[in-house]
Amino acid sequence: ATNMPFYMPHGTMRLESVFEVDEPGFWRKPATDAVKDHPLLYVHGYNMGFEKGCRSAALFQENLRLGTRFLLFSWPSDDAVMNYAHDEADVYWSVPYIEQTLDHMISSFGTGSIDVFGHSLGTRGILLALVRLSRQYSGDQPLLHHLVLAAADVDAGIFKQYLDLIRPLARNITLYVSDNDNALAVSQEFHGYPRIGRSGPHIQGLDGVEVIDVSATGRRSASGHLYHLHNRVVVNDLDQLFNEDRLAARREGLQQDLTMGPNYWKLLPPRAY
């Protein structure tokens, strides 16, 4: 099945059980002590209800061998393709809770120790939560280690407005973009402005951000939107970033594109390197 043009392995997973833990119990010290490497917070995107979000998060966790260092923040997406506007409202309502989760993680694991990965509409919630956190930021050291945004459904101009506020909060910021992303193409048509998760001239001028253009690696999902889950070349690049702590200049398979700026890198298919 992995040789098929579009392969959706998380579709074969199912959610076995759910149990509730109170907040103090969730953040109890024995659990946080069990995490030795950088803990990673994952925020899913649009059209990901609770069960689907858990399945996609489990696939991400499995692909990158994250084990106990992984935490999913599930915001209440409608899990309905036609309810995009509902999902936008839901992610905005979730911003204070994303901020609270980030604050808990920083307090539990230490300043500058946590990684954050956001996908699609979830990146908007992360950015707004970080803007809120920036109000209490002292500037002594970054709050996050890696901040990684993939297929970000964020207005490019608004992202640039926020960048000065969020840049000091993360030691490293990485933005994955693609011109194969049909979902972001629809979002761009809907909103009337470029999305920061699509490649193009609007990506230039993002100082302090490593931009990774994955367009050349093709698609592994029909929408071209879920490459962080189903494109093995992208997964390998994420593995080098999160598990080997390598910036773009030290990762295999990346080619610098100076025509777009010193921080712009193209991820190549395996046969090209």
Give your account of this protein's structure.
There is one protein chain. The chain is of the alpha/beta class and 273 residues long. Helix content is 36%, strand content 15%. The protein has nine helices and eight strands. Strands 2-1-3-4-5-6-8-7 form an eight-stranded mixed sheet, sandwiched between helices. α3 (50-63) links the parallel β1 and β2. α4 crosses α5 (122-134) and α5 (122-134) packs parallel to α6 (156-166). It is globular. The model is unreliable at 1-9 (pLDDT under 50).
* Beta strand %: 5-15%
Coarse shape: globular
**Helix proportion:** 25-40%
Strand elements, count: 8
**What class, by secondary structure content?**
alpha/beta
Unreliable parts: 1-9
Draw up the topology in text.
Elements: H1 23-26, H2 29-33, E1 40-43, H3 50-63, E2 70-73, H4 84-109, E3 114-119, H5 122-134, E4 144-150, H6 156-166, E5 170-177, H7 182-191, E6 210-213, H8 227-230, H9 232-243, E7 254-256, E8 264-267
Parallel strand pairs: 1-2, 1-3, 3-4, 4-5, 5-6, 6-8
Antiparallel strand pairs: 7-8
Helix pairs in contact: 4-5, 5-6
